[in-house]
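Course assignment 3, question 2. Fill in each field.
Student: A.L.
Task: Predict the tertiary structure for the chain below.
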Amino acid sequence: MRTPSRLARALSALQGLAALGAGCVVLLPLAYSFLVSLATPAEAFVGRLVPATPHWENHLSAWNAVPFGRYYLNTLVFALVSTFAAVFPSILAAYAFARLQFPLQNLFFALFLATLMIPGHLTLIPNYLTLARLDLLDTFWALILPLVGNGYAVFLLRQQFRALPREIDESARIDGAGSWTILWRLVVPLSLPAIATTALFTLISRWNAYLWPLIATDSDATRTVQIGLARLMARSAEESALNWPVILAGSWIVLLPTLTFFLLADRLLLRFARLGALLR
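Answer field:
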């Protein structure tokens, strides 16, 4: 009995060391960038790890160098609305593919999956030309419309919906429920963990989006925080040598909401998972 016990403890210790090593790989660059954001340019140039005196004014300088307040508001509107525009149609499509029957169902689903193999860069020019002809460039419509729906979300949610027992649909239909009622009263509550995960990763990807907002926007009224960070770096290069403490302070201004999303989602996903387990 001792050998398996020792082996289990050894494996547990190795797993703990692996987790600690992975945590260090992820956290050390973040910690280093935060420390540099509090240093002077001279300390950053010589690679001093801990600044002699924390310079919190670097964060204020980064905030004031470009209109980050406006960019934050723009990005929040863009991220929330585009996430809803991606997840809501995906729920409807996934339910149709998973729980309903209609002609050429497998063919249409294969076409949805095929969209995942199209590089995003391939659609940049067609999307830009289409929106230019509609006179929608430099508006929130230009940011959101190309991102309506999501093939990956449809695939993920379809697999989740298919895993639910068919008996719940049959029982609900016997009681007079229609497809719409079954979806929102039964399928969605039982699939909250998958839906919340899909929405979270979609929200973070929208917050971090750079290339499409760079192409589709041309004024501070619609620019996002990622564009603001690029402008901060360009402005620093124009004035003098790159001021890395201010640039990294700007990076933390942009990164902070993403970290907040993860910290909040950690608890929310656990709650949704428990709720889904209870509802099953």
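Instructor remarks: DSSP finds 14 helices and no strands in the chain. The longest helix spans residues 244-279.
Grade: pending
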